[in-house]
Amino acid sequence: MQTKSKLQEWAMERCKAWNWNCNVAEIAKELIDADIDVDSNRFRALEHAFVEFFPEHGERDIETIRHIIEVFG
After folding, report:
1. Angle at the Cα of 54 (from 48 to 71), degrees rounded to 5?
2. Could you tell me the residue range of the domain that residue 47 belongs to?
3. Furthest-apart CA pair in the chain: how many Å?
4. The model's pTM
């Protein structure tokens, strides 16, 4: 079980790694490969960090990522 602060730290690190090329399909595939479920605490932490890190398109993109994971994950 990860603490909330560790989940937030992990999520922000992922956003920083994706910053150079924010491709929603590749991000979704990475999360699917890591077995991250959209109903998990990890994904909820990621949603929050993603919207914060990518303020211009974060909400739209994380919703697209969520849908890709739901369909193909």
Report:
1. 65
2. 4-72
3. 32
4. 0.92
Tokens of 28: 């979704």
pLDDT of residue 22: 76
pLDDT computed for residue 62 by the predictor:
97
Say what the alpha-carbon torsion angle 2, 7, 10, 16 is, to the nearest 10 degrees. 180
Distance CA 73, CA 67 (A): 9
Q: For 22, which DSSP code? A: -
Q: How many domains does the chain have?
A: 1
- Length of the chain, in residues: 73
Site of tokens 């992990």: 10
Structure tokens that stand for 63 in this block: 């919703």
